[in-house]
Amino acid sequence: MRVLIGGGSGFVGRELTRLLKSKGHEVTIISRQPGPGRITWADVESRGLPQCEGAVNLAGENIMNPLRWWNDSYKKDLFSSRVDTTKTLAQAIAASPSPPQSWVLITGVACYKPSLQNQYTEDSEWTPFDLLSRLVKEWEEAGRLPHSIAQSTRQVIIRPGAVLGRDGGAMKQMLTPFWLGLGGPLGSGRQPFPWIHVSDLAGIILHALETSSSPTSTQQEVFNGVAPALNTNYEFTKELGRILRRPTLLPCPRVPHGYLPGLRESSHPHTGSEGRTQEKLWSPPGYQFQYPGLTSALKEIVGS
After folding, report:
1. Burial of residue 60 (number of CB atoms within 10 Å: 0-12, 13-18, 19+)
2. Cα–Cα nearest to 85, from 131, 130, 31
3. Contact 31/8 with Cβ under 8 angstroms?
4. What pLDDT, on the 0 to 100 scale, is given for residue 291?
5. Per residue in 197-230, pLDDT tens?
6. CB-side exposure of 66: number of CA atoms within 13 Å?
7. 129, 162 in Cβ contact below 8 A?
8. What is the distance between the alpha carbons of residues 206 and 114, in angstroms, rounded to a whole number?
């Protein structure tokens, strides 16, 4: 299978590329710079979609970029890097004489409104309530294919929680303070913390690509990319501290909205989502998680 990956050079993209190639699939990455096995976004806009059976978009400015101020310019980049690239791919798919069998878009659980009581599934109704939920709304709308194309190309949206792994994502910024003994729960720590190991997110994307068949509906299929375990921020903090053998005694105060890049009182996974998310099981055959629980995932990440 030939797979085209927008943003394939990033944290999740590298893991997905490794997995696809290990299964014998051919990968072409869309990035800002050309190179072996790569094309640019300008190439897609000018030449159209290359021949492929699957297309995936992972592109987007890092929401927790420590080198950027949380200002209007940064917020604009968060939207354009996701919405514009998604539009580019969706339009290229629609214009292709031989569109791919599957089109997979990775967004996020930030669409779900904070709640200590609600448990969100893919069928939960939601409306935008803040910046990041508006981003998810525009992002997913940008990926919607015309009805005529959706009859032959399966549309899949995966909304992951905090993506955990050794080489990037949430853990990259968490490990240093935890190693220094400065890690602690955010606020009360009671807020749910939806997460997924990067290997499982890549596995779910591969599963969507490999199980692609003629669409039963022209609507987008949505799946929450979160592990089966429903952990709180407190549980995550204590387990990471235990595995690292470091104290986690200092609670981190809540950060006022907009004070630091990406931090907010909402379902953003780095602050601890206050909306519980549950995955919809794939059927059949269902996807089997490599890391369904927090302990196994964290031990793999820190090499314990």
Report:
1. buried
2. 31
3. yes
4. 96
5. 999 999 999 999 998 677 777 889 999 999 988 8
6. 7
7. no
8. 30
Neighbours of 135 (CB within 10 A): 22
β-strand pairing of 54-57 with 2-6: parallel
φ and ψ of 6, to 5 deg: -75, 130
Alpha helices in 9-112 (DSSP H): 11-22, 41-47, 72-79, 85-95
- 18: pLDDT confidence band, cut at 50, 70 and 90? very high
Q: How confident is the model at residue 273, as a pLDDT? A: 43
Decide if 72 contacts 119 (C-beta within 8 A).
no
Task: Name the amino acid, one letter, at 155.
Answer: Q
Provide the β-strand partners of residue 196. Answer: 163
Q: For 5-43, give one letter per residue: b (16+ CB within 10 A) or e.
A: bbbbbbbbbbbbbebbeeeebebbbbbeeeeeebbbbee
Number of Cβ within 10 Å of residue 263's Cβ equals: 19
Closest CA to 240 of 162, 149, 154: 162
**CB-CB contact of 44 with 30 (8 Å):** yes
Burial pattern 138-169, b for ≥16 Cβ within 10 A else e, equals ebbebbbbeeebbeebbbbbbbbbbbbbeebb
Q: List the alpha helices (DSSP H) in the chain.
A: 11-22, 41-47, 72-79, 85-95, 131-142, 147-150, 169-179, 198-210, 233-244, 294-302
What are all long-range contacts of 71-80, with beta carbons under 8 Å and residues at least 24 apart? 74/261, 75/131, 78/135, 79/135, 79/138
Looking at the DSSP bridge assignments, the partners of residue 286 are none
**Residues 161, 223: contact at Cβ < 8 Å?**
no
**For the chain, how many helices (H) and strands (E)?**
10, 12
Q: Report the pLDDT averaged over residues 226-255.
A: 87
**Cα 123 off chain centre by:** 18
One-letter amino acid for residue 277 of the chain? T
